[in-house]
Amino acid sequence: MKSNEQWTSKLGFILATAGSAIGLGAIWKFPNVVATSGGGAFFLVFMLFTFGIGLPLLLAEFVIGRSTGKEAVSAYKELAPNSKWHYVGYLGMILCSILLSFYSVVGGWIVLYTIRSFTGQLLSPGADYGQLFTDTVSNPWIAVLSQGLFMLITTMVVVKGVKGGIEKASRIMMPGLFILFVILIIRSLTLPGMAAGLEYFLKPDFSRLSSEAVLYALGQSFFCLSVGASCMVTYSSYLGKNEPLGKPALSVVSLNVLTSLMAGLAIFPALFALGMKPVEGPGLLFMTLPAMFEQLLYGEFFIAIFLVLFLFATLTSAFSLLEIVVAAYSKGDSNKRVKGSWWTGLGIFLLGVPSALSFSGHPLFIWGDKPIFDWADFAVSNVMLPIGVLLISLFVGYRFPKQRLEQEWAYVAPGWRMGMRLYVFMLRFVLPIIVLVVFVNGIL
Predict the structure, then answer these.
(1) Residue 191 buriedness (CB in 10 A; 0-12 / 13-18 / 19+)
(2) What are the transmembrane regions (predicted)?
(3) What's the DSSP call for residue 208?
């Protein structure tokens, strides 16, 4: 059954797809990796990999979804009937469910901190923000309730469908995200002593570009675009048959790279201007940034902006993670969508409760030397996503019907038949090797 959901415009598709791709990693981890791995040298390598590797993989998911107009599982069934390829769609559903289960935990923390910032309960002179964060994540009631609130917001948007929910929210959140970034960048670049942070972030230093950093850039080149989970298969299935694929794909890749650049420009100049050390991950958002904004004039205002920015980035990614599961259940039926969204949202919330309780200190939620939260992250990022990327590359390279691929390629690069041959060669022989290298490096 062909989905009756459609994006209202190409812009809506680009904003929603970019929102799916732009997540927490692009804002709180990637800039620090850039700064500590050669600055501009790493950023150059990352851009080359993203456009040379990530873009072809993104297009692979686009052609699967747009060619069939169906969600992931049904799309693989149509293109490769009487085969096992549709299990790639099921893999995507499982992957997205696990990912959203612990991603929603972090989303809950952000919701809670956002509320605190708007009520004036976050910044306080001399406060121990590290202890505040520890107290927040270790309190089981706070952790579970905030995660539930984040899942409630996500589900309420997905229930409303593609046009009335995901696209409408993305049209507000994505421009809002970039506007907020511009405000923060202007503030950061007007601080005395900001030049040291700018140099630290962007000055090319190839001597610091290690083999480990290059491998990270390789992995990020496709992970940062949300490929491998078939989310983009589902999103592109809502695109009209006559819409071009090449320009939207380029736009999504460019917006993702731009976001990582803007995050660095907003964070590092301010950190160095205030004599603070750069960090990554939750420590940046929940400990370092509050301490930094506490020292600034109108700090409450700017920390609120940053938290809203993080919340927008987290929610737009969460929409796509929930949508792939809901779409497979509802198959375009609006009545099924409502029921499927609520039940799926509830199921993923319950699945995420152990991750939410991972920092409570209870031994039940710690396996070996890691909390359940970290194990879920490892399973998704280091195992399932690389496998998903590999299978999608091989599917389009070997199994996608040639005539249909030629029809789709006409919307990617009109008149450039030789380009399709090069593209198929990359999907068959080049990209699988790269993905395997990243996969082996990730599990060792």
Answers:
(1) middle
(2) 12-30, 42-64, 85-115, 141-162, 174-195, 215-238, 250-276, 296-329, 341-359, 379-401, 422-443
(3) G
Give me 262's structure tokens: 């803007």
Helix (H) or strand (E) holding 366: strand 366-367
Give CA–CA dist 239/222, Å, rounded. 22
Q: H-helix or E-strand containing 371?
A: strand 370-371
Q: What is the pLDDT of residues 4-23, one digit of tens each?
A: 678 998 899 999 999 999 98
pLDDT tens, position by position, 279-319: 878 888 899 899 999 988 899 999 999 999 999 999 999 99
Q: Where are the domains of the chain?
A: 10-443
- Which amino acid is residue 391, in one-letter code? L
Query: What burial class does residue 444 get, using C-beta atoms within 10 Å of its C-beta: 0-12 exposed, 13-18 middle, 19+ buried?
Result: exposed
Whether pTM exceeds 0.85: yes
Q: CA nearest 42: which of 226, 230, 250, 264? A: 264
What is residue 415's predicted lDDT score, i.e. its pLDDT?
64
In the chain, what are the helix, strand and coil shares in percent, each to the nearest 5? 80, 0, 20
Distance CA 113, CA 115 (A): 5
Burial 110-139 (b: 16+ CB within 10 A, else e): bbbbbebbeeeebbeeeeebeebbeebbee
Residues 175-231 pLDDT 10s:
999 999 999 999 999 999 999 999 989 899 999 899 889 988 888 888 889 899 999
Q: What CATH number does domain 10-443 carry, 1.10.287, 3.30.379, 1.10.4160, 1.10.3470?
A: 1.10.4160
**Angle of helix 40-49 relative to helix 246-273, nearest 10 degrees?**
160
Largest CA distance in the chain: 66
Q: How far is the C-alpha of 312 from the C-alpha of 202, rounded, in Å?
A: 26
Structure-token pair, residue 77: 């069934």
